[in-house]
Each structure stands twice: as structure tokens, then as C-alpha cells.
Write a structure and sequence with these properties.
The protein is α/β, with parallel strands linked by helices. It has one domain: Metallo-dependent phosphatases (Purple Acid Phosphatase, chain A, domain 2). The protein is built from 8 helices and 10 strands. The strands form 2 sheets. It has a 5-stranded mixed beta sheet with strand order 3-2-1-9-10. Helix 2 packs parallel to helix 5 and helix 3 crosses helix 5. The longest helix is centred in the middle third of the chain and has 24 residues. The protein is globular. The N and C termini lie far apart (43 Å).
Length: 248
């Protein structure tokens, strides 16, 4: 049997990430998958990168999300293509603050992360790690997505299991021929449960079983740290962490 642990959308919340990784370690996965959006919004982006660099050195597969592009290179057109009328000042100020907090070495590491990684289980089952969907860091598997669009997006890869994030809402979709595993968010979840979400995936003899796990963390301390920073939009970011719902 192959066991994988998947997390994503940490968004600079090192407190939540470390709580998740403690739970992950108890499950003894063969590999840890980290599906992007690592640093923007939360109060401890440098610590998040330091932990993930060590995790990657131990064999974890870490990829880049769309907000990581914004932080690394201020390429807001690539990071937020749907914002055709311009990117809000809160995002720009948050990206610039995060970039400065990371420093040159961490920013370079973030910039060089791949947009996708692949992992093959012992039985040959192929797993794709992407941020939003195969071939895209921005076009995700939203719950309201038209089924024909979902099929078109999953057909871009030969992988049996597609591990992703981006929506901040954990979800498992078994399409029969393929399975979408959206682990939600390990730091900035939007489903109304102010905990961190992640996924545990077991693969054996072609059978895939997935469980969404929730990990509690000190929500108030993280929200207070965001508020104390005083950036544009921080009052909304702090409220999002406190409530587990997107506040803007």
C-alpha cells in the first residue's frame, strides 16, 4: 500500500501548517504533497518556507500556486487573470510585505518551484499534484463548475488521482476513471470550519481511498498576529482565519 498526505494553501500560516504536519507525521505517509499557495496573507511566511524547504529535502513534493507567483515576481496578471479591472491594493501590499519578509534566498526558492509534480504508487497508479487543475495554477475545480468543464480539465492528465487546492474548500470527487482530491487549506480555509484541512490518500491494487482530515490550531493567535501587522486588508484576513469563511 502507498500512503500519501496532501496539504495546500498554507498562506503564511505557520501555526496551522505545523499543527497539520504533526498530525501528518503520525500517519507515516510514504510522501507528503504540498499543492501551492504557500506564503501570501499570513503572518509567518519565512517560517513556512523554512519548514517546507526542510520537508522537500526529506522527499516531499512541493509546488507553486498562483499567489506564490504574485509574491515572487509581482506578476499579478499571471497570478490573478480574472481580475481584469486591476488587483486590489490589499493584495499588492500583502505581496510586497511578504516578498520583503522572505528575503532573496527564500524568494528564489519560491520562484523556482514547479507548477506540477507527479508520483507513481507501488501499484503503478499515477498521482498528479497541481494547484488549481492539470495545466493551470488558476482554473480550479470550483463546486459550481459545469460538469463538462470538469471533465475537460481532468482529461488534461493521464493521472488517476489529481491532488489540488486553490478553492480553499476540501472536497473529494470520484469520477470513476479519475479522482479529484481537493485538500482544502492548511491555514486559510473557506468552508466555515476554522480549522486546517488536509487529505490522507491510500492506494493499493488500483483502489484509492481518501479521507479529509481537520486539524485544530490557535486560531485567535494567528488572527491577532495578522491584525497587528496593520496592512491593507488585514482586518478581513484576520476575520477569515477566525471564522473559516472568506471575509472581504
Amino acid at each position: 500500500m502507498t500512503r500519501l498526505a496532501a496539504l495546500s494553501d498554507i498562506h503564511g500560516n505557520a501555526t496551522a501548517m505545523e499543527a497539520v504536519l504533526a498530525d501528518v507525521a503520525r500517519e507515516k505517509p510514504d510522501v507528503v504533497l504540498v499543492a501551492g499557495d504557500l506564503v501570501l496573507n499570513g503572518p509567518e511566511p519565512a517560517l513556512v518556507v523554512d519548514v517546507l524547504q526542510n520537508l522537500a529535502a526529506d522527499g516531499a513534493l512541493v509546488i507553486q500556486g498562483n499567489t506564490d507567483i504574485a509574491v515572487a515576481d509581482f506578476d499579478y496578471g499571471a497570478a490573478f487573470p480574472w481580475m481584469s479591472d486591476g488587483v486590489p491594493d490589499a493584495i499588492v501590499e500583502g505581496a510586497e510585505w511578504t516578498h520583503d519578509e522572505l528575503g532573496e534566498q527564500r524568494v528564489d526558492w519560491l520562484r523556482r518551484l514547479p507548477s506540477e509534480r507527479r508520483w507513481r504508487a507501488e501499484d503503478g497508479t499515477l498521482v498528479l499534484v497541481c494547484h488549481a487543475s492539470p495545466g493551470s495554477q488558476t482554473a480550479g475545480f470550483d463546486q459550481a463548475l459545469d460538469p463538462t468543464v470538469t471533465i475537460e480539465r481532468v482529461a488534461r492528465t493521464d493521472a488517476r488521482v489529481i491532488v489540488c487546492g486553490h478553492t480553499h474548500v476540501p472536497e473529494i470527487r470520484d469520477l470513476g476513471w479519475k479522482m479529484i482530491v481537493n485538500d482544502g487549506s492548511a491555514g486559510y480555509v473557506f468552508d466555515g470550519d476554522p480549522t486546517a484541512s488536509w487529505a490522507l490518500i491510500d492506494i493499493e491494487h488500483g483502489e484509492v481511498s481518501v479521507a479529509i482530515r481537520r486539524t485544530a490550531f490557535d486560531v485567535l493567535s494567528v488572527a491577532n498576529a495578522i491584525s497587528a501587522r496593520g496592512l491593507a486588508g488585514d482586518v478581513y484576513r484576520a476575520a477569515t482565519v477566525r471564522t473559516g469563511r472568506l471575509v472581504r
